[in-house]
Each structure stands twice: as structure tokens, then as C-alpha cells.
Amino acid sequence: MNNQSPHFSFPKAFETRMENILDADWTKFAQAHTQAAPVSIRVNPKKKFSPELPHVPWSDFGFYLQERPIFTLDPIFHAGAYYVQEASSLFLEQALKQTVDLTQPLRVLDLCAAPGGKSTHLLSLLSNDSLLISNEVIRARAQILWENIQKWGHPNVIVTNSDPSAFQQLKGYFDVIVVDAPCSGEGLFRKDADACKEWSEENINLCAQRQRRILNDVWPALKENGVLIYSTCTYNANENEANLNALADEYNVEFVSLKLNPEWNIETISSNNAIGYRFYPHRVQGEGFFISAMIKKESADRLKLKSNSKLNTPSTKIIERLKPWTLASEQFRWIQQQDLIIQIPESLLNEIDFISKLFFPLGKGTAVAELKHDKLVPEHAFALSNFINTDFFQATDLNESEAIAYLRKDVLAISEGLKCFGLVRYKNQNLGWVNHLGNRTNNLYPANWRIRMSAGINPSPE
Ligand code: SAM
């Protein structure tokens, strides 16, 4: 073992373990921790933003940036044109493409979903008639998840805030379950000083126990031949291989061997029957990550969805007014919750209704408008929808400083001399709504989404 590890202060026990595992590669691993972490984004294909940047090799949507910009000050980030996401974790795309037919309507659960990296990625990969249930157990994080999901603009989604055990109500329902488990975060040490500070053997054991409980809790919700994708951003075997072997001891599990391009430098791990893939920061342009895909090879009880309840729908007159707002309006149904009108894909209506009754979701479909007397006030989520008929609305193109002022919810100096709700756009991306009142324009950006930073000001924690 060498004693000349470059300067990065690892927890001692972690260092000893990794030196033993990596042997000759330890120095490279330690050196990688003295370099800045690569910056990568994943674009939203529905928003037609395609930067000319080097690709993350295992993802159609991932790109590397030369340096880290202040994303908060990029208006199209707030429009949902891209998501800032660590490159290794984009390998979910390969795990999915190689295990399921993405042209089919799938029922998918993202169990540990906040802040929404995997969920928004899943939405870009799934067909329009698939349904994603995106769940986060911690309430405050579930709110952030719902915000990010709305920015992504897909209507075929429900956001829930439930404990994993709650999904036992949906026995044998899911074609795919993604468990991106809370973990000790060893793979994020160079990005996240707290993960390094909080590291301890005790915490690893707690994480491993929690992960095992999560896997056991959610297993009944997977259908026979359904796919479970398990991932963590840690290297240690207790949280990865050992958990997979424990699952295979208890249930009939077939691990899937994924095809890798040797140039990707991803390490294949075999441990008893378990197969997984490990990403090291000295071998890939990304952070530490672990992922495994497996198939449930046992019969599963199947829940029969029954929903013939009468949904509260807006009046026909209102629906006729809303139809021209929407592209492909024949694919949607509108439902009314108090004064809020929500758009839901027709083919998913009964399922979304059934699941909503069990889980009381934070959000579902796309909120389109609020009914105020007989006025329809457009909802922010609808401005960001991939199904908005932008041509139907009065739209104002903003320059960069106007766009940032809009996102700060500042008073706007634009006036179109009109009286109507209008969209504001930046570089062909919808940012949100304004209310043109003739001689002035009100900024309708949601108060709780507004940015608290000005162009040219150094970023400070918001
Ligand atoms: N999948 C997310 C993404 O791609 O943006 C990241 C998920 S993060 C690795 C793990 C998540 O699990 C966190 O949001 C955390 O709040 C949640 N979590 C914590 N304890 C949990 C538990 N007991 N059961 C399920 N999820 C839990």
C-alpha cells in the first residue's frame, strides 16, 4: 500500500477498506478526489433543447458541461428544459432499455424519488400511456419533487408521500420498481462534504438495514416478471451486494446481466447470484454509483383495479373553453377538485383515480386552470406542460435580464396594451404566465418558486 495518497481527507476506516479493495488503483481513486467533480445535465427531449456538448456515453439525454454555471440564473433551467444530474446515475437509462419494452404502456414506481432526477428521467423514457408513481417519504422533499415533476411537463404521473410499506396495497401492480435507496453516500464524497463527515460504520449498518426493509416492503408490489432496479451512490458491499443476496435468499430473483461498452469503464460485480455495476470516479467521468437490475421470478397476487366512481368534472362549457388550450385534447379528460381543473390522460383516468383514493397524492396529471367565478386563471404547471398549445396564447419573448426579473417575481416593465393572460418565454421556452391589464402587466410567477438571486451577484445559499 502506498503512503503518498494525494490530499483528500477520507475517514480512516473507509480509506483502509478502499485501499484493500482497489489495491493498485487506490492512488488514482484518491487523486480523483482532488479533482473537481464533472458537471452534467440531462435534457428534456420534449422541450427540444439540444446543446452542442459532449454526450454522457450511456445516455441519449446526458451532456457534460465544461464548468459549473450558476444554474439558478439560467431561465431555461426553470422552464424544465434540462435537469442537473450526476452522469453515473444516468445509467438508469441502460438498465431500463435493456430490461423492458419501453414502447409498451408500463406501470412504474420510483419509490425514493426526491428531488426527482430518476423520475424526470423515467418520464422521458416511458411512453405517453405509461404511468409513473413518483414517491418520496419525507414531506418537504416530496414538495420539491412535485415542483420538479411539474417543470418536466408530463401529465402521466402521480406524486405520493408514503412509506414504502404502503405500496403493499398495490400487490403485483408494477412492471418496474426503481429503488434509488437512501445510503451512506460514499460515492459523493468529493461533491458532498457532509457525506464524508457523517460517514461511520454504524451509519452504514443503519443504512443497510433500512435498505433491506425498503426492498422487502416494496417487493409484493412488483408483478411476476416485473423488473426491480436497485441503486445507491455508495461502494460498500453491505449496502449493495449483501442486500441483493439477502433479497435473493428470500425470494425468487433473477439478476440481469447488462451489456456494457468496455470503453465505459464500468465494473461488473458478481457476488453469489447477484450481479451489479459499480462506477468509480477514477474510471468514469462521474461519481461513485452502484446499480443492479433483477426480475421477479415468482407468481404474484395481482390487485384488481376497480374504479367506477363519479369524478367531479367541470361543466361542458368550461371543457369546450379549455380544449383549444391543449394539444391532442382528445387524449385528455378534465377533472375538477374544488376550483382547480386538472388534465389527466384519458387512458389512465381510472387508475389514477383508484390510486389517488389510496394514497392522497400531492399531485397528479397537470393542473390547467383555477376557476374564479367564470374566469379561468391558467396554472403555472400548465405553462410548463408539454401539451400546452402555445400558439393559442398571447406570448411575449423576454431578454435574459427580463426573464430573470420574471423569475424573481419582480414588477415587469412590459406592457402589451392588451387585457388577457399571456405567456412569457425565453429562448423558445415557456417560463410562466403574466396578466396583461392594459396599461401594466402583473407577474404571476408562483411566489414559492421565485429565485432569490440577481444576475451578477455571487451565489449564496438560498
Ligand atoms: N432518486 C432521487 C433522484 O434521483 O433525484 C434521489 C433519491 S435519494 C438517493 C434517496 C431518497 O430516499 C431521499 O429522498 C430520502 O428522503 C428517501 N428516504 C429516506 N428514508 C427513506 C425510507 N425509510 N424509505 C424510503 N425512502 C427514504
For CATH, the homologous superfamily of the domain at 89-296 is named as Vaccinia Virus protein VP39
Query: How would you classify the helix and strand content by structural class?
Result: alpha+beta
- Bulk shape: globular
Helix content: 10-25%
Q: Counting H and I runs of at least 4 residues, what is the number of helices?
A: 13
* Rg over CA atoms: 23 Å
Number of E-state strands:
21
Provide the list of bound ligands, each named once.
S-adenosylmethionine
Report the sheet with the most strands, covering strand number, pairing sense and barrel closure.
10 strands, mixed
Q: Name the CATH class of the domain at 89-296.
A: Alpha Beta
Architecture of the domain at 89-296 in CATH? Answer: 3-Layer(aba) Sandwich
Mean pLDDT: 94
Write up this protein.
- This protein is 25% helix and 25% strand.
- It is α+β, with helices and mostly antiparallel strands and 462 residues long.
- Among the domains are: 89-296, 3-Layer(aba) Sandwich (Rossmann fold); 310-391, Nuclear Transport Factor 2, Chain: A (Roll).
- Strands 4, 5, 6, 7, 8, 9, 10, 11, 12 and 15 form a 10-stranded mixed β-sheet that branches. A 4-stranded antiparallel β-sheet has the order 13-14-16-17.
- Strand 16 and strand 17 form a beta hairpin.
- The longest helix has 18 residues, at 201-218.
- The protein is globular.
